[in-house]
Fold:
Amino acid sequence: MPVTIDAHTRLLVVAPHPDDESIATGELIQHVRAAGGTVEILLLTAGDNNPWPQRWLERRLRIGSDDRRRWGARRRQEVTGALARLGLPQEALHPLGLPDMGLTACLREDLHGQVSAWAGWLERCRPNLIAVPALGDGHPDHSAAHVLLRLAVAQWREAGQGEPPVLLSYLVHGQAADHGEAVALPSSADMHAAKLAALDQHQSQVALSGGRMRGLAGRPEVFRTVEPAGSGGWLPWQPSAAQRPWLRLTLADREGARSWPWSKAPLERDAAGRWRLALDATPGPRFVKLYTGLPSLWIFDRWGWCEL
Structure:
């Protein structure tokens, strides 16, 4: 699918946290601005649940609610500075104030409300190009953002709101490639320098993890067109019998979000050992997540989401 960027382009960047906009789309934003198009940033969280950099910079061990609010305010200021480096005014930033490390919980607890709110932002911004985290991104906020955006776009389209936007996915954490064509935009030394200058505005993050973050931002910006990836209902996972008592499944589609322990999920298995949800298909995108409810210091997903 060819992606055309010109003066008619209305780009919406879905950024789960401050710094994602610079790491993943810093050059895409500049391309749209240089062509005379418009850019809006939907910032999902303030990135306030990020204790280790805060402990490092503030020389404190305990992080309370007031400390987190202050940290979130700092990160909001940083993203404003980053957008200025990319040629965007402060008015281009639309913060939603959702809980950092809590997007999956928001999805499970109030999917209809979230999808309707997101569809409202689509109606307000009316993008014809959207950059959204990849479904296979290992960070749970990123993959949940993909699910919410896809369901919101489906609802927006059902309401008859003009031509459907082109969706481009970007990957920050992990190496799982989504389905769809690769889209790589031309770069230049000036564009890349402006992108890194934008990243450096996120001082709260680069102070502790500057090498890792510059490594992420230093990669060529390669997106993938988002296309439905039907699997016939078959799940890509084959957990062992020892794992299954600890596992849960969440299904998200136009009907809402439903969750089950593995033992109570509506599953069937074929002779090859594949598992499938034994539910009637509903129109529109459908996603299922495999996870454990066990507490862990590891924030990234082991299994994550798949599209049915």
